[in-house]
Write a structure and sequence with these properties.
- The chain is built from 16 helices and 11 strands.
- The protein is an alpha+beta fold.
- The chain has 3 domains: about 5-175, GAF domain (Beta-Lactamase), CATH 3.30.450.40; about 180-290, PAS domain (Beta-Lactamase); about 300-370, Arc Repressor Mutant, subunit A (Orthogonal Bundle).
- The longest helix has 28 residues, at about 150-175.
């Protein structure tokens, strides 16, 4: 069978798996062979909690998969860089951090090298505020590190895998009852609003109606959801306009008393717009919470604000969790000299003068995103 025939058969099997998930094992096995790899996986990873969820796999060692889930996911230096990867772009280890630095990590020495692996090439399929879904292949010593052919083969099939996963999600969504979705939406503790493409209110939950009744932060004017503060409303409008291509956007708002709130705008794909149809179909969900001192950290906001590299962000988060340079070095499996170099750059980019200032900086972002 020629290369083009193999590609055609593989793509056909990818779409077959949208209706029969049991076929994914065979699809991933074919994909690994087509790319020139020893194993392939579909996974989701949470960069903050350092958790991984295996969706489907083929060719991977079950023992090492369990070790990764229970211990080495927390040591994987590729997780945060993967989270910031562009959709569908194949990324090998060397695209994310210096390969020589990777070879010095505890993760490589204890999990990668014992399996005879030398590279992992992955592409982002989807992102949420908390995790990233990826398709990836493991390159064994007999395969060698990824080259341009590897990336080209990935580029041929990744868009089809991503589209197949979206179709599967749509099928699952269509099988769910709209009433169940509405009940779950209405049960949120935060103020939750569904709005159409013009910003008109389609639905609000109980907490959302409480916010509207108070009239201090949000109001409905001629059916349109508006922020009471003029500048805040301009910011919200601009964000909604660009939200259709985003995975989620956060906007800081203030009410008449100066209380700070956080609005999270989540674009809704057509298969999720189950409240209303036609011009009144929901195009985005808006979640509003009052900022408190405890909450969930959004590391990507810090990275964008201070233009941090993935390695610098990883060290910053580890500094908050682990403490000093020695502890971070042991936790990440990286030399202390490397940690000190990243720390120096963090001081320069953030303007912090001490490690304690870095911790306060991260705590401040956690406060803003709380609710």
């Amino acid at each position: 069978m020629s290369g083009n025939q193999k590609l055609t058969h593989l793509i056909g099997h990818i779409y077959d798996a949208t209706l029969d998930p049991s076929l994914w094992h065979g699809v991933l096995d074919q994909a690994a062979q087509f790319i020139g790899a020893s194993a392939a996986v579909l996974i989701t990873k949470d960069p903050t909690a350092r958790r991984v969820c295996l969706i489907h796999e083929a060719g991977a060692d079950p023992h090492y998969l369990e070790l990764y889930r229970s211990r080495y996911a927390a040591l994987d230096p590729l997780t945060i860089p993967h989270y910031f990867g562009e959709l569908e772009r194949p990324l090998a280890v060397a695209d994310l951090l210096p390969y020589e630095e990777f070879l010095q990590t505890e993760f490589y020495k204890e999990w990668v090298r014992p399996q005879g692996l030398v590279d992992f090439v992955a592409a982002v399929l989807d992102k949420t505020a908390t995790d990233v879904a990826m398709f990836g292949v493991f390159r064994h010593e007999r395969n060698g590190v990824a080259d341009e052919r590897t990336r080209q083969c990935m580029r041929m099939i990744v868009p089809h895998i991503r589209r197949a996963m979206m179709i599967s999600r749509a099928v699952d969504s269509n099988q769910a009852e709209a009433r169940t979705l509405k009940d779950a939406f209405d049960g949120f503790g935060a103020g939750a609003f569904l709005i159409d493409v013009g910003g008109r209110l389609v639905h609000a939950n109980a907490a959302g109606h409480d916010i509207l009744n108070a009239g201090e932060l949000l109001r409905v004017v001629d059916g349109r959801l508006m922020v009471v503060d003029v500048e805040g409303d301009k910011t919200l409008r601009a964000t909604l306009t660009s939200a259709t291509a985003a995975v989620g956007t956060d906007v800081a708002l203030s009410d008449g008393d100066g209380n700070r709130h956080v609005a999270h705008i989540l674009p809704l794909a057509a298969e999720h717009s189950r409240f209303g149809r036609g011009p009144r179909a929901a195009a985005a969900a808006l979640f509003v919470r009052k900022a408190t001192l405890e909450g969930t950290l959004r590391p990507e906001i810090i990275a964008r604000t201070y233009r941090l590299t993935p390695a610098e962000l990883r060290v910053l988060l580890a500094m908050v969790e682990e403490g000093g340079v020695r502890e971070v070095s042991e936790s990440l499996g990286v030399a202390e000299t490397t940690i000190k170099t990243h720390l120096s750059r963090l001081f320069e980019k953030t303007g912090a003068g001490r490690q304690a200032d870095l911790i306060k900086l991260v705590a401040g972002y956690a406060s803003l995103m709380a609710g």
